[in-house]
Amino acid sequence: MTAMRWALLIAPLVMIASLLTWIVTSHPERAVGGDDRPPVERLTFQRVVLEPGAIVATILNDGPDRVAIAQVQVDDAFWTFESDRGQSLGHLRETTLRIPYPWVEGEAHVVRVLTSTGASFEHEIAVALETPIVSFRQAATFALIGLYVGVLPVAIGLMWFPFLRRLSRRGMDFLLALTIGLLAFLLVDGAHEGLESAGELPSSLQGTALFIAAGAAAFIGLEALGARLHRRSTPAAGTVLALLVAIGIGVHNFGEGLAIGSAFVLGQATLGTLLIVGFTLHNTTEGLAIVAPLARAGDRVPLRLLAQLGAIGGLPTIAGAWVGGFVYSPVWAVVFLGVGVGAIAQVVVQIGRQVGRATSAPALASGPVLSGLVAGFAVMYVTGMLVG
Amino acid sequence: MGLVGHVTTAANKPGTFLRTWNFSDLPPEQRAAVYRESRRPDGSLLREYEIYAVDREIEIAPGLFFPAWTYNGQVPGPTIRATEGDRIRVTFKNAGAHPHSMHFHGWHPPEMDGALPGQEVEPGATFVYEFDADPFGLHLYHCHTVPLKRHIHKGLYGAFIVDPRRGRPPADEMVMVMNGFDTNFDSENEVYAVNTIANAYMQEPIRVEVGRLVRIYLVNVTEFDPLNSLHLHGMFFDVFRTGTQLSPSERSDTLMLCQGERAIIETTFRYPGNFMFHAHQSEFAELGWMGLFRAQPPRDT
């Protein structure tokens, strides 16, 4: 670049820097708010851990002004506490309060932080349960839950493959449409959950934008991966599509595992038998979705490939449960839910293209396709009721 | 349980407030600026007070500040004490940002009520309240400007003691005003106390002497909660409701008072050591309304 070009690039930067300097030194906002406007105080609870005889709460200052934590009340009683990073927090700074409170297992508690101005911020512990610490036993428990709700159902769903190969053309159309219906449900479900979690994030972390960006990135990433695999064209088209579906479902199941693990830890849900049964039934249909493109393409499918696809789709549930249970962070939960939704959306588009290529436009509105779409959504809706 | 840290910027030290009336804690020249007494022909006193309302941020628990409205910069306001038949003259100046008033409990003509429409004292204005101290007993004064709840719970109240002509038996006397603070303005108190500072007498116990009569002037000005109470551990006390009779009405270890109600209680410590006292509403007790008496053996004279 010439000197002239550099100058043209830099001039606006210099101007914005001087504008910022002027704002910081002359405080034009004071003309609006007055000198003694009350500070904007906003604290959020990032993570609350229950240890024997203690509540450990991580607090983030989500507001623009400095906030000083003055006192802590638990269940309407002043309680002593220690903070690891001090009680005065700047913008987006966090501190961890250790409160030696004799909480009662299975009961509800309310932790309230009072700032120096008397503003109060509360967190409700709906059901008090000791937070699991990372241990082999706990990891094994989460792995077992992941196995039940993720790996085994997907593997069982795959076992429809021999049956699917013997289906008629119309049966195949129905099946692919069914898959789209199933995935569309997961898309709606994941988007709802993701946006809900995004809304609970501290507002300066802009959860909704984060969620959508993660979804878009996953969509584009899988699109690029699909294009690359098709170009190489060593694996057959059906295999490529099945792989993409498996990846999409795997990412979705990671998010599901995350939700299970964190619910278990935060004491927000008790993981009853019905819930496990619900997830198990719900996820069996995911195995079906993975093998449908293979059956339709009529490719030769070695058993090893089936096992690999099952692992890609199911195993992330276990990883998700570990992450959710041991290192839960609301921000990462939103990101992963976003990635899951993006991946599912991409898979829906891929399968939709394939159906569209193979059938003429009027056939797309055919009986098998329409009833497949409805049936797919309905199956997920009904099994989803069990998870409720 | 309990609070973290200590209050460092108390407007009125809880230990001093306890045994102060008519500005008795001030050096003579400062005291003369706010309180004067002069003998009247009938032998009673004319007691003149300079009271002003002022907005002030006060520390009510360690590190916790409340934007209070105060009489003379303190919550509760200065304790006013006279003998039955004395003349009270209070020059009230409103240096606050809102209209305020002083409404005394006790006999007075309507012009001196401070509560009727048009009796608010505007910011910058002055009004002189004048009336006889009557009847003897334990009373209170508070701002009666609307909205009433806010003007009272923001801190505009104080104790008003009228002694009987013949006096009461000598005793170690103290004033306790039960109050609460709604720091986040949700019409519920976050902090409860006697004499404003949560757990102040827990951190610095009130020293009393075994065998010496103790008299507590107990006033309830808690807002939002209809009732407050005092419970004293390990002993009993005589209750003189509103202090208007010279013989006790009951003997108890727990006394319940409605908003604005008050009582004089008398007791004598039998044993040395720490004696807890607190509201028997456990919630109030754990939100700051709890303290200790430390009884010491009598000093040899």
How do the helices and strands line up, and which of them pair or pack?
The complex is a heterodimer of chains A (388) and B (301).
Chain A: H1 3-26, H2 30-33, E1 43-51, E2 54-61, E3 67-74, E4 78-79, E5 82-83, E6 88-89, E7 94-99, E8 109-115, E9 120-125, H3 136-158, H4 161-165, H5 169-200, H6 207-232, H7 237-266, H8 273-297, H9 303-314, H10 316-326, H11 330-358, H12 361-364, H13 367-387
Antiparallel strand pairs in A: 1-2, 2-7, 3-4, 3-6, 3-8, 5-7, 8-9
Helix pairs in contact in A: 3-8, 3-9, 3-10, 5-6, 5-8, 5-11, 5-13, 6-7, 6-11, 7-8, 7-9, 7-10, 7-11, 8-9, 8-13
Chain B: H1 14-18, H2 28-34, E1 35-39, E2 45-61, E3 64-71, E4 80-83, E5 87-94, E6 103-104, E7 126-132, E8 137-142, H3 148-153, E9 157-163, E10 172-181, E11 191-194, H4 200-203, E12 206-209, E13 213-220, E14 227-232, E15 237-241, E16 250-252, E17 254-258, E18 262-268, E19 273-278, H5 282-286, E20 290-296
Parallel strand pairs in B: 2-5, 4-9, 10-13, 12-20
Antiparallel strand pairs in B: 1-2, 2-3, 5-7, 6-8, 8-9, 10-11, 13-18, 14-17, 14-19, 15-16, 15-18, 19-20
Description:
The complex is a heterodimer of chains A (388) and B (301). With 388 residues, chain A is an alpha+beta fold. Chain A has helices spanning 3-26, 30-33, 136-158, 161-165, 169-200, 207-232, 237-266, 273-297, 303-314, 316-326, 330-358, 361-364, 367-387; strands spanning 43-51, 54-61, 67-74, 78-79, 82-83, 88-89, 94-99, 109-115, 120-125. Chain A folds into two domains: 43-125, Immunoglobulin-like (Sandwich), CATH 2.60.40; 136-384. Chain A is built from 13 helices and nine strands. In chain A, the strands form two sheets. In chain A, strands 3, 4, 6, 8 and 9 form a five-stranded antiparallel sheet that branches. In chain A, strands 1-2-7-5 form a four-stranded antiparallel sheet, with no helix packed on it. Chain A is globular and about 75 Å long. The longest helix of chain B has 7 residues, at 28-34. Chain B is built from five helices and 20 strands. Chain B has 301 residues and is mainly beta. Chains A and B meet through β3 and β4 of A and β3 of B.
